[in-house]
Amino acid sequence: MQTAFSSKEFRSTVGAFATGVTVVTTRGEEHAYGMTANAFSSVSLDPPLILVCVISPSEGADHITANGVFAVNILAQEQEPLSRYFASRDRPKGRDAFAEVPHRFGASGSPILEGAAAFLDCRLHATHEAGDHLIFIGEVLEIANSEDGTPLVFHGGGYRLLQAPPG
Which residues on adjacent β-strands are paired with residue 135? Predict the structure, then answer.
């Protein structure tokens, strides 16, 4: 079956859905790795499961598969520079990837970014192939939520600010 739209039109259409911005991190024996992603969702409350979608093949997908763990750091509004950093192909890699990024390590050993609006630290529960992506389902091991943190939002190809409704 042939589609009547281009991949650019498809991307523009799904871009009409406002999303939060995350940095997905993982750590193996050699070093930590991080990447910006907005394809994230909760899956189940019991057991607590979430999912992230990662392009395949990619370095990020390879690291999560090999490490069997990952964390989803939900970025706060003021962390747009971190989103851009982890989305850049020119950022430092390997042991230097987190040298300038304030973080600690979660229960899984994955980096937890300082100042994030929230985070979910996970053990890999399942992996599914879907088109040009892998869907990683994680069993949540540790969470935290900053009650005063406003999340970074992405919509229509750009970062946006949330505003409280009037009144």
Answer: 53, 128
Q: Where do the domains of the chain lie?
A: 20-148
pLDDT in tens, 136-163: 999 999 999 998 778 999 999 999 988 8
The whole-angstrom separation of Cα 36 and Cα 12 is 19
- Position 164 scores a pLDDT of 80
Domain 20-148 has CATH 2.30.42.10: no
The residue ranges of DSSP E strands in the chain, in sequence order, are 19-20, 22-27, 32-37, 40-44, 49-55, 69-74, 103-105, 111-113, 118-130, 133-145, 153-155, 158-160
How many Å apart are CA 55 and CA 46, to the nearest integer?
27
Place of tokens 């190809």: 157
Q: Is this prediction's pTM over 0.90?
A: yes
